[in-house]
């Protein structure tokens, strides 16, 4: 049984198989982002620090795109759905970062939470099919290679961990809240 830490994050299992360990660490990183962004109003989610234009709201929206991009689009080969399908990514490659300031906290959290739930369903579909972590993505990279589900999960853990470091700094600059 997985316990929760003092911030409500699910503790990754300490002695489990590869799937449970990878999914446990991914959920822990997701919960860390939720914790870092929780309780802030629109002003807090739009705040920047130092010379960076990065915001907590931008991180939420970016991670929603990353969730969708790796699990639905790459792994399952689906096309972008709303709101991503209306973006001219060539003309505006930082759209999610730039437009997060236009969204309310409720909209940002809902977009991210929907993406996480879809990602969980996408992973479960692969695992339930018996393909396992070695299942190759439905979309190939420009060089013809396809990452495995294992690679995608490891990459997502890294992506969250990197942005959670940014979130630590942003949150501390907003209200002094610190922790991990």
Describe this structure in words.
- The protein has 180 residues and is mainly alpha-helical.
- The protein has a single domain (18-175), classed as Up-down Bundle (Four Helix Bundle (Hemerythrin (Met), subunit A)), CATH 1.20.120.450.
- It has helices at 18-37, 42-46, 56-75, 95-99, 105-128, 149-175.
- Helix 3 (56-75) packs parallel to helix 5 and helix 3 runs antiparallel to helix 6.
- It starts with 17 loop residues before the first helix and ends in a 5-residue tail after the last helix.
- The relative contact order is 0.17.
- The mean pLDDT is 96.
Beginning-to-end CA distance, first to last residue: 23 Å
Q: Please state the average pLDDT score.
A: 96
SS-derived structural category:
mainly alpha
CATH superfamily: dinb family like domain
Number of DSSP helical runs = 6
Number of domains: 1
Class in CATH? Answer: Mainly Alpha
Named at the architecture level, the CATH assignment is Up-down Bundle
State the helical fraction: 55-70%
Biggest sheet record:
none
The strand count comes to: 0
| The CATH topology | Four Helix Bundle (Hemerythrin (Met), subunit A)
User: Which residues form runs of ≥5 with pLDDT under 50?
Assistant: none
Any idea what the radius of gyration is?
A: 17 Å
Order of helices and strands: HHHHHH
Instruction: Assign an overall shape.
Output: globular
